[in-house]
Design a protein that fits this description.
Elements: H1 47-59, H2 66-93, H3 107-114, H4 120-144, H5 183-187, H6 235-263, H7 269-294, H8 356-367, H9 375-389
Helix pairs in contact: 2-4, 2-9, 3-6, 4-7, 6-7, 6-8, 8-9
């Protein structure tokens, strides 16, 4: 792909170290803008801390500091990425209306997703609309402060699904070659481990975490009816839908950690309000999809095997264990802050030392979302992430 100039709304020469200079917001972004996944957990702040933060912001005449602008720019890019992927899901299995226009639906794919929950079309629609409003709002807020915004339109070059129902337009993300990390499922069921302490977790669906799997039908051949199966849904079509069900939660669990991690770095109280308020919605998304993903590995759907790739969705309730019981969707208490303190039910991870933005870029890349994007896109995504992770409160 030929190199093109980055949109004029994004400047160049990204600084590597935070400074104490306010900006209008001249934290530039070199080359193309990008990014994901995000959500939030609530943070409690004392009145004194909030007042001091407010005074520091007023000292700079209401202009965004470099750090606050860097955080919002990264999140704007992330929400653009999320909107793109959720739009693809909505075109094929959601509700197409004037709130989330585009597409006309793939009947058997939508029916296969409905096996996870009969209201899947509404949930997909509403998640899509949420991400769209987040994207538009954050960019609008940046613009209202005279800050550079993010425009990723030049990267909309990836192919669409050719299945009936999908728009034939350029995409930012690839949902047809995914390698989905399913360790989030066991992470939230562990009573002792927390990734903030470097702990690792087994995959709930080991075969989904290797190889490349479609989460949407690539062509109508992927959704051919099978009269020998209930509702004419072939094992292959159901495996695609189950992959999507787990991918929904994978995407949103990242946001459930990212927003609080970045909120700890924000200085301006309005920016903090934005992170807390949007982040709360991302957590709501994760709770919803955590429940629906579990239905893919519980009876009657448990045992589906993709006849093409061998992808297997086992019955995680046979036998049910602390790490696999599918109806345990609320976070179990775990070590938090210090192993000398009592265990607590929390969003995890949230440690600012673990580089939440950079971790998000890596997770999206490993997931296969950016297969087909040029190195320039990946380079910029990491630059945006490093800029956000490098922010220190007060700068």
């Amino acid at each position: 792909m030929a190199k093109k100039d980055f949109p004029a709304t994004v400047a160049s020469n990204l600084p590597t170290q935070p400074t104490d200079e306010p900006t209008g917001s001249r934290l530039p972004v070199r080359r193309r803008s990008f990014l994901k996944g995000l959500g939030f957990a609530g943070a409690t702040i004392s009145a004194g801390t909030l007042l001091a933060t407010q005074l520091r912001a007023e000292e700079h005449g209401g202009r965004l500091r470099r750090g606050d602008a860097a955080i919002l720019r990264f999140l704007a890019a992330a929400e653009i990425i999320e909107t793109d992927l959720w739009q693809q899901y909505n075109e094929l299995a959601g509700i197409q209306d004037n709130e989330v226009p585009g597409g006309s639906g793939s009947d058997l794919y939508a029916l296969a997703l409905a096996q996870l929950d009969e209201d899947m079309d509404q949930y997909i629609h509403d998640n899509t609309e949420d991400e769209l409003t987040h994207e538009v709002f954050i960019n609008a807020y940046l613009a209202s402060k005279g800050a550079d915004t993010v425009n990723l339109d030049k990267f909309r070059t990836l192919p669409s699904s050719k299945a009936t129902g999908a728009q034939q337009i350029g995409r930012l993300t690839n949902l047809m070659q995914l390698t989905v990390d399913t360790s989030w499922f066991t992470r939230y069921r562990s009573r002792t481990k927390n990734p903030d302490f470097g702990d690792t977790f087994p995959h709930a669906i080991p075969t989904l975490a290797v190889g490349q799997h479609p989460a949407i039908p690539r062509t109508d051949d992927d959704v051919k009816p099978d009269p020998s199966k209930p509702n004419n849904i072939s094992d292959f079509t159901q495996a695609i839908a189950n992959t999507a069900g787990f991918h929904f939660a994978f995407i949103e669990q990242g946001g459930a950690s990212l927003y609080p991690t970045l909120a700890f770095k924000a200085t301006d109280p309005t920016v903090l309000r934005i992170l807390v308020s949007i982040g709360g919605v991302e957590i709501d998304h994760f709770g919803l999809w955590h429940d629906k993903g579990g239905n893919a590995v519980a009876q009657p759907l448990a045992g589906v095997v993709d006849p093409v790739t061998g992808l297997t969705f086992p019955d995680l309730n046979n036998p049910a264990t602390e790490l696999t019981q599918t109806n345990k969707i609320l976070p179990e208490p775990c070590d938090f802050i210090s192993k000398n303190l009592p265990r607590c039910s929390v969003i995890r991870p949230t440690s600012t030392q673990n580089g939440g933005a950079v971790a998000t870029v890596k997770a999206f890349t490993d997931d296969g979302l950016f297969i087909g994007q040029p190195d320039e896109f990946l380079d910029l995504s990491m630059e945006l992430a490093v800029a956000a992770d490098s922010v220190k409160r007060g700068f």
